[in-house]
Amino acid sequence: MRLFRRKPREVTHPADSGNDSPRRERPAWMVDGAQAVLFSGYETLEVVGESFRQDKLRRLTGYPPPEEPVRKQIHAVLVAEDDNPHDPDAIAVWIDGLHVGYLSRENARRYRPGLLKQQQTHRKPIALTGVICGGGMRADGPGMLGVFLDHDPADFGCRPQPVPPPPGSRMRTALSDAIATDADDDSYDLGWMADLPDDDVRAIPLLRNSWPPRQVSSAVTTCTSTLRPCCTGAETRSPPRLASTTRPAVSTTAR
Questions:
Q1: How far apart are the first and last CA of the chain?
Q2: Per-residue pLDDT, 200
Q3: What is the DSSP string of 40-103?
Q4: 106-110, 116-120, 122-126, 136-140: range with lowest mean pLDDT
Q5: Which helix (H) or strand (E) holds 206?
């Protein structure tokens, strides 16, 4: 049983954030002031195809300098493309009236039935909280921007897909997951671990002095942020406070 769930809320989405997204490309309902139901969660849903839409992502983040890392909270609308000639299950991702990518083919197949069910239940489009992040200078030049969405698979009738532990590992931890996916996930880098001394007594002070923990802001706090024509006031799923040791009490306050 999942103790921490968020309540969906409605948001208003902007129809247009620039001239590079002609109206004929957008769904007919995506006009100024269009309402969507906003969901969130504690698991990441990645978006693909952002490499072909970097100018749109830079526009959405205010065209930051190439050397500046980017992390911008967003609300993204999921749009099932029934007429997509390449993938009948395609789910497009739109932010502030701009098409920024798709869910992967695998995720589109998994999430499409639940997405359509939520749309039918709420009679509105469905949106997710998330971030645009990336940028900064790298050895091969400016880093690209990517889109990562927050969600709860259960909201779409899906089960979480756990990351298998590294070969030879008997225990699955957050660190083992990170090590298992480090090579394929550019959102973090564990290369610094190779510089740590093998002796724990020497490594612990080095970690404390050289790698102080970063203060990471929660993506859940963006539900009421400014959304230039496309996302305002709605119901979100908030983690409930436990009223007792056996039964959680649902809190209606969105973080």
A1: 22
A2: 72
A3: --SEEEE-B-GGGGHHHHHHHTT---TTSEEEEEEEEEEEE-TT-SS-TT-EEEEETTEEEEE-
A4: 136-140
A5: helix 200-210
How far is the C-alpha of 25 from the C-alpha of 13, rounded, in Å? 16
Nearest CA-CA partner of 94 in 134, 141, 149, 41: 149
Mean of all residue pLDDT scores within the chain = 75
- Residue 240 pLDDT greater than 50, yes or no: no
Output phi, psi for 103, to 5 deg. -75, 155
Torsion of the alpha carbons at 9, 163, 180 and 176, rounded to the nearest 10: 90
The model's pTM: 0.59
Extended strands (E) in the chain:
9-13, 34-39, 43-46, 69-80, 91-95, 98-102, 126-135, 137-138, 141-142, 145-151, 241-242, 248-249
Helix (H, G, I), strand (E, B) or coil at 11: strand
What was the pLDDT predicted at 53? 95
pLDDT score recorded for residue 219: 37
